Structures are given as C-alpha cells and as structure tokens.
C-alpha cells in the first residue's frame, strides 16, 4: 500500500502556487474532508489562502498572480485572459480593469473569489483563438493585443456599450493592424462581422499610426 504523505510533502509535490483540495487529498492518500481541515489550519497560520471553495494558493510563491487562478475557475472549458485585462497586461491601455476579463467557450458568468471578481464571456468556439502562454510561462493563456481588441469589439456588438469605449488604447509601436483585420474576417456571423469591421476601422482611423506620415508615397 502506498505510504501517505504529510500535507507539507503534498504541497511540495504539487510544485505550483494554485491547487485544489482534491489534488492535495490524492497526494496525501487521505479524504477530501480531512485534507480540507489540514489546509484550513495552514490558512489560519497565514501560509495559504483560500481563494474559493476547494481552491487554494500560496501567496508567498513568486510565481503566484491572480491570473494563475483562471484555469481553475474555467469549469473545464477552454479559457484565456482577454479584453481590457489583456490590453492592460500588454501595456496597450492605461485603464486598469477592476475585474479579470476572460474569454471562454463555456457559459458567460461571474465568479467572485478572495482575490476579486472574474468575468467569463462566452465567444463562439470558431473564434476561440489568438492566444498564447503569458511571457513564455505556463500559468495562464492570454490573447494577443490584436485579438484582445477585436474580442472587445466582438462583445460590444452583442452586449451594448460595455466594451465599446476604450479610452487611451495604444495602437502604435508594433500593434499589427493587419492581424486585427484578419481576426475580424474570422467572425462567422455576417452581421456581427460587419459591425466589428466598422468599429475597428473607426478606431484605427482615430488612432492612426504616426509612422505612416513618414513613409514615402507609393
């Protein structure tokens, strides 16, 4: 029979800053109930933080950020950080979002945790692309700046004014305008696609690339 691990040994074996009660219980070879009690004792001692039911973190771990929680909250659906949150992480907008905004193929929903609110926004599975691991790590997926912007316009076409007004968005310095236009062309709904195309064209026109003025005429 496999020997049991202590809670400390199980936490060391998990080797990441966010984990679930069930994961630690499996590593301990113990019940979920007894493991939950052990983790609560560590939280009381200030060594762990309970984020939401069944999900914990080690806030002292240098790899920890509130974005590492996203895969654990996605309820088994693919998900990536996008919208204004992603634009801010890419330093494309000064506006600091008060919530973590996420694109998913699952249901639109709001999840509240000890770290704040997480808003999941459903997008069509055929439009679920344009993301990669953040800065080469493996903690969470994030949209490219171009896809994050188009995601904002895509949701604005269906959800009113919430993502329509992007104050201070920076579309210079390496922002790939052609890639943004390509993402718009991948929208399968013609009505939404036309709406997003018009919104993107207006946004690109008002934030014209200054380098274009220095190019010689064709």
Question: How would you describe what is shown here?
Answer:
The chain is an alpha+beta fold and 218 residues long. It folds into two domains: 7-57, Orthogonal Bundle (Arc Repressor Mutant, subunit A), CATH 1.10.10; 66-207, no CATH class. The protein has eight helices and nine strands. Strands 4-5-7-6 form a four-stranded mixed β-sheet. A three-stranded antiparallel β-sheet has the order 1-3-2. A two-stranded antiparallel ribbon has the order 8-9. Strand 6 and strand 7 (116-122) form a beta hairpin. The longest helix has 17 residues, at 190-206. The chain is elongated and about 60 Å long.
Output the keywords.
alpha+beta; four-stranded mixed β-sheet; Arc Repressor Mutant, subunit A; disordered C terminus; three-stranded antiparallel β-sheet; 218 residues
């Amino acid at each position: 029979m496999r020997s049991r691990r202590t809670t400390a040994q199980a936490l060391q074996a998990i080797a990441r800053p966010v984990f679930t009660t069930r994961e630690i219980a499996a590593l301990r070879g113990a019940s979920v109930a007894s493991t939950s009690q052990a983790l609560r004792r560590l939280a009381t001692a200030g060594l762990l933080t309970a984020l939401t039911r069944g999900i914990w973190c080690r806030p002292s771990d240098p790899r920890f950020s509130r974005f590492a929680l996203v895969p654990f909250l996605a309820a088994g659906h693919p998900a990536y950080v996008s919208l204004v949150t992603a634009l801010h992480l890419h330093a494309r907008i000064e506006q600091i979002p008060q919530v973590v905004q996420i694109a998913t193929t699952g249901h639109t929903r709001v999840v509240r945790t000890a770290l704040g609110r997480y808003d999941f926004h459903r997008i069509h599975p055929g439009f679920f692309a344009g993301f990669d691991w953040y800065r080469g790590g493996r903690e969470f997926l994030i949209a490219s700046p171009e896809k994050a912007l188009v995601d904002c316009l895509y949701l604005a076409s269906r959800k009113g004014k919430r993502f329509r007004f992007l104050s201070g968005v920076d579309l210079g310095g390496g922002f790939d305008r052609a890639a943004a236009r390509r993402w718009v062309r991948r929208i399968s709904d013609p009505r939404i696609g036309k709406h997003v195309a018009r919104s993107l064209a207006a946004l690109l026109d008002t934030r014209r690339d200054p380098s274009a003025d220095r190019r010689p005429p064709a």
